[in-house]
Amino acid sequence: MILVTGASGQLGRAIVERLAGASQPVIAGTRRPADGSEQRHVDFDEPGSLDFTGFATVVMVSAGYEEDDVVIARHENVVAAAERDGVQHLIYTSVATDGDHLGFALAHRWTERRIQGSTLRWTILRNGLYAELFGSLLAPSAGVITAPFGSGGVAVVTRADLAEAAANVAAAPDRHINRVYDLVGSHAITAGQVAEGAGLLYRPASLGGHRAALEQSGLLPFQPAMLLSAYSSGAHGFLSRTSSDLGDLLGRTPTDPEPVAVRIVEQLIAA
Ligand SMILES: NC(=O)c1ccc[n+]([C@@H]2O[C@H](COP(=O)([O-])OP(=O)(O)OC[C@H]3O[C@@H](n4cnc5c(N)ncnc54)[C@H](OP(=O)(O)O)[C@@H]3O)[C@@H](O)[C@H]2O)c1
C-alpha cells in the first residue's frame, strides 16, 4: 500500500492521479480529508495523525511555507513515524542540488540528512523550480515584466512532470533504493524569453526595489526573504544547472517548460 502526503496540494494531488493504475492501493493523506473519499487525515503538525501502519511506501511531499524550525519539526514527525510503523521505503520531494542558496533549502537538506541516517530505504527527489512558479514570479504590469531575475537562466520543470516522476518511483521503489535524483530541466530559460513569449518587454528590477515592494504587499514575515533568494539565485546563475535525471525517470523527454511559464504570465495579465 502506498501513502501520498500533501494530497490536497497541487503536487501531491497530481502524484495520486498518476498512481491511479498502480498495482497496489494508493491512499491520499491530507490535513483536510473529504468525506467518503479514499483520503486519510495526515497532518505533519499533529504526530497523532501520523499512523503509517501497513504502508510499504510513503511519498512524503515536503510541507514548506513556514520558518525552518516549523518545517524541520514537521518533517521529523514524519520520518520518526515511518521508522516506528515499519514503512519500507520513504520518497521525499526535496529541492534541486543547485538550490542551496534558496531560503528554504536548509530545511530540505536537514530532512535529507535525517532520512539518509534513518532505518528506512529512501529516495530523494530533488525537485527543480516549478515552471509555474517561475511564471508567477514575473509579475507583468502594463505590458512590462519587472522582476529581479537579471539575465540568469533557470532550469525550471513542470509540476506535472515532477508528479509523474514521483509516481514512477513510488510504483517501483526497489529500482530506486537510496538514490538522489536532481530533477531539474535539460535546459535553462530566462525571464526575458518568457516575456518575449508572452509578447511583453522585460526590464530587470533591482533586488532592493523588489524587496521593498514585497514587504508592503502583506506577505508573511519570512516570505519576502525567501522570494528574494529565488530571484537572486536565478539572476546569479545558481539555478541554471541542468540534468538528465528527470527524463530518465519519465522514460521520455520532459515537457518544454517555457510555454507553461508563458501561460502563467498570460493568466496573470488576464486576471
Ligand atoms: N519546486 C518548487 O518550485 C516549489 C515551489 C513551491 C513549493 N514547493 C514545495 O513543494 C511542496 C508541494 O508543492 P505544491 O505545489 O503541491 O504546493 P501547494 O499546492 O501549495 O500545497 C502545499 C502542500 O503543503 C502540504 N502541507 C502544508 N502543511 C502541512 C502539514 N502540516 N502537514 C502535511 N502537509 C502539509 C499541503 O498538504 P494538504 O493541504 O493536502 O494537507 C500541500 O500538499 C510545497 O509544500 C513546498 O514545500 C516547491
From TrEMBL:
Organism domain of life: Bacteria
Domain NAD(P)-binding: 6-172
Pfam families named among the record's database cross-references: NAD_binding_10 (PF13460)
Protein's name according to its UniProt entry: NAD-dependent epimerase/dehydratase family protein
Organism from which the protein derives: Cryobacterium lyxosi
